[in-house]
């Protein structure tokens, strides 16, 4: 089976390039081959490759910058996935896509289910929500994995930023009033591969029965402050981590105060997800 993989230079895409090897023949395309801001190019590449499955972890992920580039964020996160869905329909292909906890406003401190109302607080979240909706509306076989606070030992992420800052400084000030679940990029890729293996073994109506949104986050919850404490501790660094409020750390984009996802649906149907701290330790070791 031919699998078209986007975003293989990103955190999740890099891990997927490895995890999807057992799923099929992976054709990985980077920005140089398929620029998601060029919708004609997206269409042309899909028509050339003719995949049976498109896996799309590529996205505009710069949350603060998106506030000043809403059109570009929307093109990459909503219009490009819409084109992928249209082309998948023509080919009879399935689409695996990724979305975010930032589709929620996070006003209520309770884990969010897939059926809970959305209400993004920022341009990035709104653009990702529009991407989800375009895929769902296309009526194709699809899986949308909403994940959160992605980190890994490569790429641009909170873990690597904090490791760098903790080495440079004696103390870090980190917000302690935003709650979520840090999720290792490798967990996301491995779970994706496991679910696709089940799809492969599942018979002809598997996609009809299972298409939809799934929350895919590590278990448990924390704050950016406590996440940083765990990072500093695990790295054995000598750096104080001071709790601050969101108001003490002004950013262009608003973030949800509480965006913990309940991954019960995914765990009931497919597989177990690890605790965030155990995954962090595995990643850092
Ligand atoms: N990072 C996070 O904390 C979270 C991410 N997600 C979602 O998970 C998915 C994977 O994210 P993650 O791997 O962390 O993201 P990264 O930021 O690590 O990687 C993004 C990828 O998208 C590619 N990309 C960006 N713009 C374009 C473009 N115009 N054309 C082609 N490729 C482009 C990047 O390519 P290049 O290297 O060339 O820039 C890179 O490969 C995304 O859908 C994201 O929205 C969900 C929750 C949290
Ligand atoms: C660097 C730094 C950040 N912060 C705060 C700012 C912010 O509120 C919080 C997180 O910072 P970041 O900007 O790294 O995180 P952010 O870019 O908001 O991360 C998000 O990315 C997108 C792609 C997602 O989909 C989300 O799930 C989430 O992972 O930490 C501090 O308090 N102190 C610091 O020194
Ligand atoms: Mg960021």
From TrEMBL:
Q: In which pathway does it act?
A: Carbohydrate biosynthesis; dTDP-L-rhamnose biosynthesis
| Alphabetical list of SUPFAM superfamilies matching this protein | NAD(P)-binding Rossmann-fold domains
Write down the Pfam families for this protein, in alphabetical order: RmlD_sub_bind
Binding note for cofactor: Binds 1 Mg(2+) ion per monomer.
Keywords from UniProt, A to Z, are: NADP, Oxidoreductase
- Catalytic activities: dTDP-beta-L-rhamnose + NADP(+) = dTDP-4-dehydro-beta-L-rhamnose + NADPH + H(+)
Q: Give one GO molecular function term.
A: dTDP-4-dehydrorhamnose reductase activity
A Gene Ontology CC term for this entry?
cytosol
User: Boundaries of each RmlD-like substrate binding domain copy?
Assistant: 1-284
Q: Give the EC class as a word.
A: oxidoreductase
Q: Which Gene3D superfamilies match?
A: NAD(P)-binding Rossmann-like Domain, UDP-galactose 4-epimerase, domain 1
Coiled-coil ranges per UniProt? none
Instruction: List GO BP terms, alphabetically.
Output: dTDP-rhamnose biosynthetic process
InterPro entries with a match to the protein in the record: dTDP_dehydrorham_reduct, NAD(P)-bd_dom_sf, RmlD-like-bd
The organism's place on the tree of life at top rank:
Bacteria
Cofactor(s) the record lists: Mg(2+)
Q: What is its EC number?
A: 1.1.1.133
Q: What functional role does this protein have?
A: Catalyzes the reduction of dTDP-6-deoxy-L-lyxo-4-hexulose to yield dTDP-L-rhamnose.
**NCBIfam families, per the entry:** rmlD
Cross-referenced PANTHER family: DTDP-4-DEHYDRORHAMNOSE REDUCTASE (PTHR10491), METHIONINE ADENOSYLTRANSFERASE 2 SUBUNIT BETA (PTHR10491:SF4)
Q: What family is it from?
A: Belongs to the dTDP-4-dehydrorhamnose reductase family.
What name goes with this protein?
dTDP-4-dehydrorhamnose reductase
Q: Which organism is it from?
A: Duganella alba
Designated gene of the protein: rfbD
